[in-house]
Amino acid sequence: MDKYHGASPLRGPPSEGPPVALWLPKLMYVVATMANSGWGRYQTLYFNNKGISPSTIGLMRGLGLGTKSISYPFWGLVADWSGSLQIALIGSILASTFALELFRLDWTYSSLWHLLFVQIVRSASNSIWPLVDAFAMAVVANSNSNEGYGQQRLWCAISWGLSALLLGYVIDQTSFNALFYFTYSMVIIEVLLVLCLIPRKTILAKSDNNNNNNKESISLTDTTNIKLFFTKKFITLSSILLFYGIVMSIPESVLFIHLDSHLHMSKTEIGLSLGCSVLLEIPLFYTSQNLLATYGTSSLLYLSQGTTFLRLFLYQFISEELKWTVYLIQVLHGICFAGFWVGVVHLGQRIGPKGLNTTSHALVSAIYATLAQAIGGVLMGWILEEFGFKLVLWTGMLLMGLVLFLTKSLMEMDEVMSDLGDLQIINPTQQV
């Protein structure tokens, strides 16, 4: 029996090929990040360079992320239902790349409605992150290695920091066209990687149940599992994701407008600040399994949330004369994001419905990375334009108080507190 024995969501019949190796999710994270980090980080500056107001940029970002809050779970459900992650990935990559090219056309900027339409198309098709995350977690779950999800995810952080710094310098030296050319080059590699190395029949949500012959399948009419998304635990977790995501839209979006327009930092300097943001993210992801086992999920969440409050407080002291301090503050991002993300991923896998693991993770991603960022982009963009950057920060700090209260409530629920300190990445096909 090979090391991938037992219930395996990553393989079909034996004739379909060997098990998936641990290096493949790492490579997927690196390539996918390089294909998406440029637009993901510099779109705000690109639109600002086009003369679009902060409130309109916030509206666009909000609309796009709001669209992703629907498309993320949809693509996750498609992967669960069909068992073909490869098809979902290829469709998402090609469609989103086509939509990205539309942002270079004059037609797109001839009307606000054209601009919003392109934003919706791009966002509806760009759902690669929850798919790659689910793939990585499933590979880890079916390996005898001591590696955890965090040791896969850290390669996203490494690639994100390096590509952001590189692109910032290249854009400064040339133009924003370099952003598109770099993205398209990475997309070609990404497509080849998915076609050649990702199994065509990647069964993410079907179990072969090693102990008996019972077969489970996903049914869109199976309301028993779907109702578990509406339990008190999952609603509380969703609320934490929503409000924390709104707060994190400040360093993810609004901060860059402030650095560009008010502190007059170059794209290279902004890129360097992005590079600094992953310095602690990498070791935290790498040691996440040991941290969870030693300190528990609650400690990791409280640490990340407290650090976020401190980070927002420190941002208000940045000035044009002291703009170098942004690099020091950005280092805290690793704790704010990696600590929080590892914690909520474990919680989502534990309390999410059985048999809908990709959908569950896609929903967690959608609430935090899309819906919350959408609301935050619109709200914080409007506050920035009308009242200034300091009120943005104080609004964020007030919301952090609410996040801490909700987290405490979730941790006090007996079902969630049980054995969370020893929680490992579970097999996505097993009963939670």
UniProtKB/TrEMBL annotation:
Domain annotation Major facilitator superfamily associated: ranges: 38-389
Membrane spanning residue stretches: 20-39, 154-172, 178-198, 234-258, 300-318, 324-348, 360-383, 389-407
Superkingdom assignment: Eukaryota
The keyword Chaperone is assigned to this record: no
GO cellular component entries: membrane
Compartmental location: Membrane
Alphabetized Pfam families for the sequence: MFS_1_like
UniProt keyword terms in alphabetical order: Membrane, Transmembrane, Transmembrane helix
Membrane topology: Multi-pass membrane protein
Family from the record: Belongs to the major facilitator superfamily. MFSD6 family.
UniProt protein name: Major facilitator superfamily associated domain-containing protein
